[in-house]
Structure formats: structure tokens, C-alpha cells
Amino acid sequence: MSSPSRLWIPAAIADLLLILVFAAIGRDAHARGDIIAGAFATAWPFLAGAAIAWGLTRAWRAPLAVWPSGVGIWIGAVAVGMLLRAATAQTVVVPFVLVALVSLGVFLLGYRLIAALLLRASRKRQRRA
User: Fold this and answer.
1) Per-residue pLDDT tens for 28-82?
2) What distances in angstroms separate CA 25 from CA 21, 31, 66, 83, 89, one per listed residue?
3) 68 preceded by cis ω (within 30°)?
4) What does the alpha-carbon distance between residue 20 and residue 27 come to, in Å, rounded to a whole number?
5) How far apart are CA 23 and CA 21, in angstroms?
6) How many Cα atoms occupy the beta-carbon half-sphere of 38 within 13 Å?
């Protein structure tokens, strides 16, 4: 089993990629053109929020933990992301906030829940062996 010190880099990369996927899906759904560059333009406030939350929650200590790391990163990404969008005159409307909450929750918490289940199953197999 990998130690948390070895898991923080893949977890941070997963968070980054999933936030970019969220932004790309949204841009594509609204036919906003240039999906790749546009995804970065849409994602940067959420990426900044996730980065701040990584620091505040010290997520590198338990990067795959749903609580507090995953929940903190999820809420941080959305809250700071929306504040930064508002500060830079980007759209912040209730339906978008709700979509961001649900989508990023599924993405950022979902893979952590799957990882927890896989780790638990692996530990059970190791105890039986």
C-alpha cells in the first residue's frame, strides 16, 4: 500500500484533470467554441480554489480521504472559484453554482470514494492471505 506522501501527486493531478473536464464539458454543452483554451479560462478560478483548499486542509497528509481533504477541496474549489469568477466579471448565477457544486462533488469526491473502497478491499485480501 502506498503512503500518503506518495499519493499526493497523483491525487493533485486527478483534481486538476477533473476540474478541467468539468470546465470542458460545460464549455462544450454551451457551444462556447475553443474547448481547450476555453476550458482553462473557465477552470482557473476553480483550480485556484482547489489549490487554496489543498493548503488549508493539508490534503497532502491524506490526499484520498473524503473527509476532510475531499470535502474541503470540493467546497474550496466551488466557493473560491465563484468568488474569483464574480471578481473578474464572469457569470455567477444560481443554476451554475448548483451545477458546479454537484458536478465537482461527483468528480472530486467520487474518485476518492472509489479509492477508499479499493483500499478497503485490498486490506481485506491482505488480512486473509
Assistant:
1) 888 767 778 889 999 999 999 999 999 999 999 999 999 999 999 999 999 999 9
2) 6, 10, 24, 21, 21
3) yes
4) 10
5) 5
6) 14
128's enclosing H/E stretch is helix 94-128
Residue type, 97: V
Which amino acid appears at position 120 of this protein?
Answer: R
- State if pTM tops 0.85: yes
What is the distance between the alpha carbons of residues 53 and 30, in angstroms, rounded to a whole number? Answer: 28
* Residue the block writes with cell 462544450: 28
- Cell numbers standing for residue 99: 451545477
State which amino acid sits at residue 126: Q
